[in-house]
């Protein structure tokens, strides 16, 4: 099993202090910084776009893991790449052609990710397993931070790890990840834990909160 990585999501940070909030989790041991981009169309919420990614880029050298909850995504891939994203993840459901989107991301020199909603089966990724670096499994319905983990998604994580047949693909678990749920996610085969509210809510002490999730996932 690959090492467990922790990716705090700045969706739960103080939007007026992104720079400091990113530096704080960087210093606290974050492995990646997760950025949730929402368009008010693919998901019922609007967050931020490439200019925020560009601004955050100046505050950390850690990989910027950009999760696009937008449809269509293709017209914006270049803008996110130029803004400093290291990983760009598109939703399989966002369409129109997942394979084309992943190829476009790799052509931009970035790691390519495919995300699936809780209701989307693992098989929807079977045709792109050699075209991606990251699979993001949503364990809440996308759109908001602070929702409860959907436990029934766990078998799908294991199914995807098996489907990968040893390919070096990161399985990112996103939504409701806490020190209480991270153990089951890792056991099923997830190796990257996105954590928004579990890190940023309830005040600072980010290092303790990140380490608690990492320890629970070991
Ligand atoms: C939800 C986003 C998540 C979110 C996770 O649509 O994709 O990344 O920020 O937040 P928590 O950890 O609070 O569930
Ligand atoms: Zn996300």
Kindly describe this structure.
The protein is α/β, with parallel strands linked by helices. It has one domain (5-216): Alpha-Beta Barrel (TIM Barrel), CATH 3.20.20.70. Helix content is 31%, strand content 19%. The protein contains eight helices and eight strands, in the order E-H-E-H-E-H-E-H-E-E-H-E-H-E-H-H. The protein has helices at 18-27, 50-57, 77-83, 98-107, 154-163, 182-188, 197-200, 206-216; strands at 5-8, 33-38, 64-69, 87-91, 111-116, 134-138, 170-174, 192-195. It has an eight-stranded parallel β-sheet. The longest helix is centred in the C-terminal third of the chain and has 11 residues, at 206-216. The termini are close together. The model has no long low-confidence stretch (mean pLDDT 97). The structure holds D-xylitol-5-phosphate and zinc ion.
């Amino acid at each position: 099993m690959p090492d467990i990585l922790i990716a705090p999501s700045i969706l739960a940070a103080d939007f007026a202090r992104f720079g400091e909030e990113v530096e704080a989790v960087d210093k606290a041991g974050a492995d990646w910084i997760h950025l949730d981009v929402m368009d008010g169309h693919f998901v019922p919420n609007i967050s931020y776009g490439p200019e925020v990614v560009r601004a955050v880029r100046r505050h950390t050298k850690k990989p910027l893991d950009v999760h696009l909850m937008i449809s269509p995504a293709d017209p914006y891939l270049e803008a996110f790449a130029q803004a400093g994203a290291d990983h760009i993840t598109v939703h399989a459901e966002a369409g129109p052609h997942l394979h084309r989107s992943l190829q476009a991301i790799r052509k931009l020199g970035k790691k390519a990710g495919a995300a699936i909603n809780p209701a989307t089966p693992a098989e929807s990724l079977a045709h792109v397993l050699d075209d991606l670096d990251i699979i993001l499994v949503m364990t809440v319905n996308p759109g908001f931070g602070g929702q409860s983990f959907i436990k029934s998604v766990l078998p799908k994580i294991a199914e995807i790890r098996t489907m990968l047949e040893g390919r070096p693909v990161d399985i990112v678990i996103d939504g409701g990840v806490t020190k209480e749920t991270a153990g089951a996610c890792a056991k099923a085969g997830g190796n990257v834990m996105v954590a928004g509210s579990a890190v940023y809510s309830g005040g600072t002490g980010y290092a303790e909160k990140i380490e608690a999730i990492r320890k629970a996932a070991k």
